[in-house]
Amino acid sequence: MSEPKSNYPVKPTIAGYKEKELQNKIKGTTEHSEHAGKLNLGQDNINAKLENPLAGISHERLGEMGRAFANEKGLSEHADLFAKGAVLAQDPLNFETLDFLDEEELRVLRREVTHKWDHPKQLYFLVVCCSMAAAVQGMDESVTNGANLFWAPQFGLDTTAGAANASQNEWLLGLVNGAPYLACCVVGCWLTAPLNGALGRRGAIFVTALLSALTCIWSACTNSWGHLFAARFVLGLGIGPKSATVPVYAAETAPPMIRGALVMQWQVWTAFGIMLGTVSSLAFYKVPDPTNAAITGLNWRLMLGSACLPAFFVMAQVYFCPESARWLIGKGRYNKAFEAFCRLRHSKIQAARDLFMVNALLEEEANISTGRSAIVEMFAVARNRRAVYASGIVMFMQQFCGINVIAYYSSTVFRQAGFDEISALGATLGFGALNWLFAAPAVWTIDTFGRRTLLLTTFPIMAFFLLLTGFAFWIPETSKARIAVVCLGIYGHCMAYSPGEGPVPFTYSAEAFPLYIRETGMSYATAVCWGFNFIVALTFPRLLGAFKPQGAFGWYAAWCIAGWFLVLLFLPETKALSLEELDQVFSVPTHHHATYQLRQVPYWFGKYILRKNMGPQEQLYHWENGSEAHVEAPKRELV
């Protein structure tokens, strides 16, 4: 998360140069909007200013700005380089038309387009760091799956049907398992901004990884359920800020052409960490208690403690990675910011281009003041409020689609299905492996099929497999078919989740909010995610006891169906849209969007199910076609 705006330069370099150009651009945009029927936001459209603050400025003026920037920021020896970089920053793909670039610079810029994955090893070292930080997250979540089989009975939390206080023990088991996510929701996520402001991205990742490692070791040394609850609650103070910082760090350091793919690695490697947690449970399952020491439950203690290993790995490497240039600029350390980009790019011309653009965006953000706090802006402006609803829906459904029920309690479910303990953990490993393998293609599918399409396709599939899992428990326990169908249901649900509701929520939330409140919006979205994660972890043991597996899995299947309708009615598509187009999408009144989507259901059914020729589809938005939009919303309406 970014630092307070007071840390940014007080006198922006760009503002003095481009005031006239910006006025002309806004005037031109207004005239075009009135002609084409687009959403006319005028000067109130903050995203229009942040889309590209260099648009409309002449190359001569950009060259002057680049030299002035270098001289003012202590980079005067690179003044000519920044003059080129400033022109490149305006339109990075237009380099072939620029006659001031030499052959080597052209070669590097061409290769950046034709070989988008060809980057310095330092960049991929940073990607590994971010990936392992995500694995820490996943392992923290899943390592309790096997440990639950041992620590709960040892601490007197017997949840067996008919046991004394079984109902109360089910609640306590859920409370301990959900403790980190309670802490994330109420405290951890909101520590992101102060930690990043004081320590930078690397410092925040180091501190949260250290906290995760120490609390994992602490969890392994507990002697009561209350003590374990305290340790896991503190663990959430590390999970929350890390879950918001790592994707931001990846986004701020990645080249634009692969930024989305690198940010998506968070979900892929979180799934890998979930699998690692299951591997740990299997590896330590048969570890006996030592005969010469007063240690009981060494196996589950090693399971919980093992989650510290990837955290130590992250701590050992994070300071070998360059700091985020955006954070360094906010602190006025321009030389360090340039050095950071030089380590992550093949040439200095690329580093100068990217540094100049980042600085331009930060200056534009510093000039924007609405006179209200970001939280007030989130709810007072109707466009932002719709982004709040949409991001809240996908974050809520990520938890209530049932995936974390399986991540936390699959070993318990497999035991009830008829497996012994070691076989239950083996089956859980299969779940973890599928979760990871099917998350990897999401890097491609999320931008190919779109966010809404993935969700609308996978929610019914997840509901079907959850019902299949629950109904399998009506098969007699003596039949091997019961185990087979339970496995099929859990694995099928996982394979539908991983490319859909798995990667979409964090990606969607990062896109939905305007740039000027995006950090606060992401804090809200992650808090919603972890808050409902806590509710799922807390309630499922009791739900399993009261509703039995049939009712418990049926409950989450019903939520998958509800999620399908919520996505249909309230979730606009954000795939491949510019910031201005996103403003138009989220400025369409909710009832217009909902009624339009309902009208499309018969069209989709006829075209894709009945295979009929349904004719042209009704359009809600028109992009660059000169025709009038079906729905035009007032500019940044306040309620």
Write structural notes for this entry:
By secondary structure, this protein is mainly α. The chain folds into three domains: 13-115 and 333-367, no CATH class; 120-321, MFS general substrate transporter like domains (Growth Hormone, Chain: A), CATH 1.20.1250.20; 374-578, Growth Hormone, Chain: A (Up-down Bundle). The chain has 27 helices and no strands.
CATH fold name of the largest domain, please?
Growth Hormone, Chain: A
Give the averaged pLDDT, no decimals.
83
Portion in strands: under 5%
| CATH architecture descriptor text of the largest domain | Up-down Bundle
Question: What is the topological layout?
Answer:
Layout: H1 13-36, H2 46-51, H3 59-72, H4 79-90, H5 103-114, H6 121-142, H7 144-154, H8 166-186, H9 192-220, H10 225-253, H11 259-284, H12 298-305, H13 308-318, H14 325-330, H15 334-344, H16 348-367, H17 374-380, H18 382-400, H19 403-417, H20 421-439, H21 442-448, H22 451-471, H23 480-497, H24 504-512, H25 518-570, H26 579-587, H27 590-609
Properties at a glance:
639 residues, Growth Hormone, Chain: A, membrane, mainly alpha, Sugar/inositol_transpt, Myo-inositol_Transporter, transmembrane transporter activity
